[in-house]
């Protein structure tokens, strides 16, 4: 959920976990076009060289235009994850987002529900593969992918497993308020200033996004911002928004409105994961890094736990110590550190996935 407004500079460090051929398994890349549909999806399928049919998993990327490897700062977490899972005996499919790589379509005008529709089409292809055990198909979603997976699983009761990696468990307005507070604090902003801005964001931005017109959205933002500025110390306002005066407030409003009053962000800020999680009937594993400052673990894991409380299936919900939003072993645990760290995915995460899958998906 890389939706906080933070500049992260690309680093040039080593990425030792990125897999390279020759692989001890079969890897096939292709372009899939559903029959009677103009959509095209760039896909890589990795599967064990012998045996089958296999428990199979579709990986769902986080927010922003992502390739099939979920490449970020030269890390390729989905390539690493697919390699690991395939070596464990599973078939894995990963896909370029619409408008990225070999997939066509308009990413900029799409919403999370459009991405969920893409996943449903991709599942149809996955099910068509002869090596796939149709009764053992799962979704693995990271960040926004952990928001899309429950949408799909709530519609498709044939899904057997759902793994949420830093997926949301609270309404997105609340999540982003907490995110902004945590990211600001990690950047050295005074904790009271960060808390104040986080509350302002959570109270204001969903209403801005829900406004029926751009003009009404602008009015809501202007009114709420002025109220907050009048109530808060100017130093705290500046520390969190760079606003010193009225002209600075205008610049801030223009920047925020440009981002938030878009199809994707309006849908995103209106999303409540409980509505979809409570309809999920498959086995669930939900994991968060304990040092995640983008999808805070305590509130989101508890939200997932409550939403799944009525499910007939067992849900495993855990916080993994020492890991950030990308499931790297972090030191500073800031957003800026993502590209500095050479580790792509922590062995703590990979081992936990292997253990859960062995107990829940390894045999028919």
Largest sheet: 8 strands, mixed
CATH architectural category of the largest domain:
3-Layer(aba) Sandwich
**Portion in beta strands:** 15-25%
Q: Looking at the chains present, what oligomeric state does this protein adopt?
A: single chain
Q: Give the strand tally.
A: 8
Distance, first to last CA: 33 Å
The backbone outline, from C-alpha atoms, is globular
Helical fraction: 40-55%
Low-confidence runs of at least 5 consecutive residues: 1-12
Kindly name the structural category.
Answer: alpha/beta
Domain tally: 2
Strand order of the largest sheet: 1-2-4-3-5-6-7-8
User: Rg to the nearest angstrom?
Assistant: 21 Å
CATH topology of the largest domain: Rossmann fold
Organism: Flavihumibacter petaseus NBRC 106054
InterPro entries: AB_hydrolase_Est10, AB_hydrolase_fold, Hydrolase_4
GO molecular function: carboxylic ester hydrolase activity
Protein name: Serine aminopeptidase S33 domain-containing protein
């Amino acid at each position: 959920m890389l939706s906080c407004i933070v500049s992260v500079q690309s680093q040039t460090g080593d990425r030792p976990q990125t897999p390279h051929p020759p692989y001890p398994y079969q890897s096939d890349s292709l372009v899939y076009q559903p029959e009677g549909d103009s959509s095209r999806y760039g896909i890589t399928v990795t599967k064990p060289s012998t045996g089958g049919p296999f428990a199979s998993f579709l990986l769902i990327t986080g927010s922003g235009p992502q390739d099939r490897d979920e490449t970020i700062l030269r890390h390729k977490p989905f390539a690493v994850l697919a390699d690991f899972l395939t070596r464990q005996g599973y078939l894995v499919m990963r896909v370029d987002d619409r408008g990225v790589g070999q997939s066509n379509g308009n990413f900029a005008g799409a919403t999370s529900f459009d991405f969920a529709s893409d996943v449903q089409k991709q599942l149809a292809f996955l099910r068509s593969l002869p090596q796939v055990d149709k009764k053992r198909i799962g979704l693995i979603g990271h960040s926004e992918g952990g928001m899309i997976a429950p949408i799909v699983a709530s519609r498709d009761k044939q899904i057997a497993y759902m793994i949420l990696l830093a997926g949301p468990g609270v309404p997105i307005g609340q999540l982003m308020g907490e995110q902004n507070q945590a990211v600001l604090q990690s950047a050295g902003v005074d904790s009271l200033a960060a808390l104040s801005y986080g509350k302002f964001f959570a109270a204001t931005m969903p209403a801005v996004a829900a406004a029926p017109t751009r003009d009404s959205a602008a009015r809501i933002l202007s009114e709420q911002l002025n109220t907050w500025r009048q109530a808060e110390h100017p130093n705290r306002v500046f520390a969190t928004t760079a606003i010193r005066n009225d002209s600075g407030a205008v610049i801030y409003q223009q920047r925020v409105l440009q981002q938030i009053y878009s199809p994707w962000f309006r849908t995103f800020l209106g999303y409540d994961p409980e509505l979809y999680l409570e309809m999920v009937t498959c086995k669930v594993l939900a994991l968060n890094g304990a040092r995640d400052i983008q999808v805070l673990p305590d509130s989101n894991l508890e939200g997932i736990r409550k939403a799944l409380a009525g499910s007939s299936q067992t849900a495993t919900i855990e916080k993994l110590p020492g890991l950030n939003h990308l499931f790297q072993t972090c030191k500073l645990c800031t957003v800026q550190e993502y590209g500095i760290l050479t580790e792509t995915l922590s062995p703590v995460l990979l081992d936990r996935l292997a253990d859960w899958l062995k107990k829940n998906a390894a045999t028919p």
